[in-house]
Automatic annotation (TrEMBL):
Taxonomic lineage: Eukaryota, Sar, Rhizaria, Retaria, Foraminifera
Biological process, per Gene Ontology: signal transduction
Organism, scientific name: Reticulomyxa filosa
Protein name: RhoGAP domain containing protein
Record field: compositional bias (Polar residues): 9-20
Basic and acidic residues: bias regions: 65-90
Amino acid sequence: MAEVDDNSSFEATSEKQANTKVDDYIAQHNKLAESVRQFEETRKKILKKKLREQTYFLIKTKKKEKAEASEQKEEKKEEDTTKDNNTAQKDDNVDIDALSKSCLNKGIFFGKSYEECELIHLPQYAVAIPAGLEGLKRRLLECEYITIINNNNKNNNDKNEKRIEGNVLNNGSKISELQCTPIEMAQVLKSWFREVLCDDPGFVTLKLLEARTEAEVKDAFTELTEPRRSVLLWIFDLWIEVEQRCNKNKMTLQSMSIVFSPNLVRTGDASNPMIFLQYQKEAQRVLEIAAHLRKSGQLQFDTAVLFLIPLFSFFLKPHLYKKKNLMYCSFCF
């Protein structure tokens, strides 16, 4: 009996010890699990911190790169501006009045070929432009107003134009000294285009006259030879600048195409005035389209400078272009 009690007591003690060991094991396991959990939390916090630091670093780096890029862009812009200013200063350093003093004389500026005029290079055009035209343009744009005179006053306008050519231009006066109104200066501009020697159909080509859509106009302009193209672009730029002053004048691209087009076309067939009128009508239409394309930036070409003006077919055969063989039409500007 005593032996049975001893066995029961031993088993109870063993079970108790086993339970204690299990409890200890579970406690250790839980403690280990807690340590692992805390480790994971700490690791996650460290990773999050590193991620935040990396993100902050990347953002800071991106901002720095963006700032540097912006700074470089500004520096490049300043360099380009400086270059443009230098180009403009170089252009401004050319004494246009001095150049124009000789080329505005009657017999030198009017009724001659393009190559015989004093020329000045402007960076926006591939070939040099007659200095007298650029001088008149700058003087014209300094005026407070530019307007259209009724065509019924044509005789009056012709007299004014003759007065300018006879009393001022023959004396070789500088453009800055011209005593004339904006209308009269505009008439002098038109007079040059009307009298410069060029072949049929004038400053425009037959392909350009036949163009109907904007795409056809751009295609025809692409095929234009120099100096035709640069001179026409110069004209459009003048029209655009004048139109920008519409609050001080009544001029639009349409009205300027109307008054300019008769001076930009030629026909050697004096016996058939209808040909000239047809050229004039088509030129008015197509030049207005081209001017709008130029205004919207769709008529841009390579301006690589041609310092030496070659002999273009545009100005060949000067013996064919005596006044008696040409059709002229004078409109008011």
